[in-house]
Amino acid sequence: MALLRRKKKVVEEVEAPTPPPASLPDPPRTGEDGMRVMEDHRDYLLGLVEPLPYFGMSLLDAHGLTLCEDIRSETDLPAFDNSQMDGYAVRAEDIAAASQGEPLSLTVAGHVAAGDDGTEELAQGKAIKVMTGAPIPPGANAVVPLEFTDGGDEEVKVYEPVAPGEYVRVRGSDIHDGDQLMSRGQRLDARTIGLLAAAGIDKVLARPRPRVVVVSTGAELVDPGRPLERPGQIHDANSFMIAAAVKAEGCQVWRVQVASDEPEAVREAITDQLIRADLVITTGGVSKGDHDVVKQVMPSLGTCDFAEVAMQPGKPQGFGLIGEDRVPMIMLPGNPVSAYVSFQCFVRPVIRKLMGVEPLNHHPVRCVAGSVMRSAKGKLQFGRAIVREDNGRRLVDLVGGHSSHLLGDLAACNALVLLGEDTEVVNAGERVMVWMLDND
Ligand code: AMP
Ligand code: MG
């Protein structure tokens, strides 16, 4: 009955969505160079999106999602005393004198397997054969493992005594009725899902997986697997890379390619996607070139913000609330490394806000520079780097150069080194902060 009561509550409790703001609030102030500080831009975007409303969903569907309720157990676990081993349920005092030299014989009065109701009472001087997980018969207080006996079915010889309580998994020894199993804000992983299932819970209140559409734009793009038919074409890396990174955050993702820089083609493709998206991410077409079509087109579809952020790579950034439903859209630059670094700075926190996952932002980790690192003043520089353990210290070395087309180095790195606006040189042995990239 208790479980049914819970289910009813779960189905009824649905959060009302918060309406998005009608227009974009004032953007953060820029420095003398006209650029925004990375954290200011990120916080600005975070202020423009709301967590997705939660609802009751089945346990497995909630894997990786954030729980929006506290859950208490409505049962003891184990729910009944049961056997930890295949063996014989006994009264420990009946076999206290058993030894290898002088085994004790007991009549086997019954057999109980896991799943049997196990109500048969154990009489003094007898044994009941039990399998692992079988209920302990009333009257028994211990289990003699099969290995301590001759394994007999009618009569059993016991060669070793056991203490009262031995090899018995006592009711409530894992979880007590009323214990808190999970708290609001916790992410459901395989282990917590296992715990809830064991406690008989099949539905939870959680925020859904955001539906994210990743759109790459550019007349030069060709899908991998297809030949490059004319000079100037390239294979589309971004939509795959960003879609994979989005998926690794736990979202449902669709990848769309617009191999065009024609305003009408981009407008149409984006408009088509709005219906199924909680978030749209585009790459390409937001800098100052002649064909930066995303920047040209998007203001006609919603309220937009285009900015230069004092970071390298990833300077040009765009954001919009698009279409009737004001779907959030993050417009990333086209260079693959710029797109990826921008993902880490802006998209990942926004996705985490939609999902209600804390912390929103990367937790910087302190490392020791393995060699000298140089950075342009006035910009936050993200260096691709490899972090390794070295005698209990975390040593970090840059891989490759600063250019934002270097996908080989990006693929080889496991961290981003953050070299701040005021940093020009970091010498070997000095401390630097990094973001580890071990989750996608
Ligand atoms: P854009 O931001 O559109 O000016 O593009 C900047 C650079 O990134 C150009 O060299 C583009 O060819 C490249 N680029 C744009 N989109 C992609 C993509 N989806 N995959 C790989 N490279 C891209
Ligand atoms: Mg382009």
Automatic annotation (TrEMBL):
GO terms for cellular component: cytosol. Pathway: Cofactor biosynthesis; molybdopterin biosynthesis. It catalyses: adenylyl-molybdopterin + molybdate = Mo-molybdopterin + AMP + H(+). The keyword Cytoplasm does not apply. Keywords: Magnesium, Metal-binding, Molybdenum, Molybdenum cofactor biosynthesis, Transferase. Its EC number is 2.10.1.1. It holds the Pfam family MoeA_C. Residues 213-353 form the MoaB/Mog domain. InterPro entries: MoaB/Mog-like_dom_sf, MoaB/Mog_dom, MoeA-like, MoeA_C_domain_IV, MoeA_C_domain_IV_sf, MoeA_linker/N, MoeA_linker/N_sf. It comes from the Bacteria. NCBIfam families: Glp_gephyrin, molyb_syn. Catalyzes the insertion of molybdate into adenylated molybdopterin with the concomitant release of AMP. This is Molybdopterin molybdenumtransferase. It comes from Luteococcus japonicus LSP_Lj1.
